[in-house]
Amino acid sequence: MITPPKYTHDCEACKSLGQFEHEGAVHDLYWCGTHERGTVIARFGNDGPDYGSGLVFGERGVQPYKEALDRAISGGFYNPTKRPLHTIDAAQMRVAQAIGKVEGALVSPWLFRDEESELYAYLLQGRIDKCAADEEGRAEAAVYEAMMRYAEVSK
Q1: Residue 94 lies in a domain
Q2: Residue range of the domain that includes 104
Q3: Distance from C-alpha of 38 to C-alpha of 77, rounded to nearest angstrom
Q4: For residue range 80-118, what is the model confidence (pLDDT) as tens digits?
Q5: Is 67 helix (H, G, I), strand (E, B) or coil?
Q6: What angle do CA 60, 66, 71 make, to 5 degrees?
Q7: pTM, entire model
């Protein structure tokens, strides 16, 4: 029997998969088929952003998403043999890695002294130049260029 949701959830397309306790917190689990492959959701509060989601986390065994995925499969909402795990190509991986570096470095202008910021900008410009020289690297270069513009206006 599926336990009714504890928290407010505003997506009418989501299918409730019941509650699940993980690390001392109650999560309302959902399947949402509105995404390309569908996704699992674990809501932990009533506020709009009080949730996490990601089919890939369930596929990798991360709780509470794995529990939501298991329930979605057993409930017939998701069939992993018909919707296999998608992989990304090398260019998409480089962009994803660049975005990760950007996220980690956005605070750099505030953490470094002026000399360190200048060195950081110099190294970043070198990375931009290297990426822009390669057709496949242009998307990665665009991410770094956006980061440079952000750092400049944030000073």
Answers
A1: yes
A2: 90-154
A3: 9
A4: 877 644 455 666 667 666 766 665 555 455 444 566 667
A5: helix
A6: 140
A7: 0.54
Backbone angles phi, psi at 144, to 5 degrees: -65, -40
Of 102, 89, 88, 90, residue with least CA distance to 142: 102
Q: Identify residue 130 by its one-letter amino acid code.
A: K
Amino acid 108 reads S
* Residue 135 belongs to a domain: yes
Contact 41, 68 (CB under 8 A): yes
Q: With CA atoms as reference, report the closest residue to 51 among 38, 39, 63, 42.
A: 42
Q: What's the distance, Cα to Cα, between the start and end of the chain in Å?
A: 56
Please name the residues in contact with 77: beta carbons below 8 A apart, sequence gap of 6 or more. Answer: 15, 31, 33, 38
CA dist., res. 13 & res. 35, Å (int): 10
